[in-house]
Amino acid sequence: MRVTSIQPSSIQLNNTSTEDEAIKSLIEPYKSVLDNEMNEVLINSTAEAVKGQPESTLGNLIADITLWESNNILKKKNLPLADICMLNNGGLRTSLPEGKIIVGKIFELMPFENEIVVLTLSGEKALGLLNYIARSNGQPLAGATLVIKDEKPENILIGGQAFDTTKTYRVITSDYLAGGGDKMRFFSQPISYQLLNVKLRDAIINYMRAENKKGNTLNPKTDGRIKSN
Q1: Nearest to 92 by CA among 68, 58, 119, 136
Q2: Distance CA 157, CA 130 (A)
Q3: What CA dihedral angle connects 189, 191, 197 and 203, to 10 degrees?
Q4: What is the DSSP letter of 218?
Q5: Superfamily, domain 41-228
Q6: For the segment 157-166, what is each residue's pLDDT rounded down to a tens digit?
Q7: Over 70: is that where the pLDDT of 149 sits?
Q8: How many CB atoms lie within 10 A of CB 150?
Q9: C-alpha to C-alpha distance for 132 and 186, rounded to whole angstroms
Q10: Exposed, middle or buried, 147 (CB in 10 Å: 0-12/13-18/19+)?
Q11: Tens digits of per-residue pLDDT, 82-93?
């Protein structure tokens, strides 16, 4: 078989074709619903929340919210409450603005499907966690305070009490970090592991929505929970 001639022709592709208009009509109702959901105002913030080290307005805010919401869930299940929450700076993907915070902004902040996990750690494993925070010059943390000196944690308080390696501690984190993400190997082989079946993102959204209904605002701030000498 031989090609004896070629006849050029053109097909115009544009947004006004019948097929494109049909697809657009099909998608539009879903797009409108999604746009409305993403633009819902969850709460107002008195200040911008941004990342930083050794602590930050954003890290403190998200860690505090996660610990609060997780303990509310544990309370409803009649389970022991968590002592601390530790997340990672890399997991916070954007800052939060002063003023209105919409649902879409929380999806930007937490674009991953990470779920909340409660780990019970031995005192030695918990010390590994605190050493990691010190070596990395701070991570989002709630429920504890410490001073970083020469990349080591000092003056450690958990819930206002001196840290004790003979005790066990309940830690809130994400399933990604609990699985060793960001080289957090101290989370391996915990005394217990419990998945709360709640996404981090959803916990944040639920908290903001509930606080807004109470007439409250967000007040991002640093408070000296992690100091670096």
Answers
A1: 58
A2: 11
A3: -100
A4: B
A5: 5'-Nucleotidase, C-terminal domain (3.90.780.10)
A6: 999 999 999 9
A7: yes
A8: 7
A9: 9
A10: middle
A11: 999 999 999 999
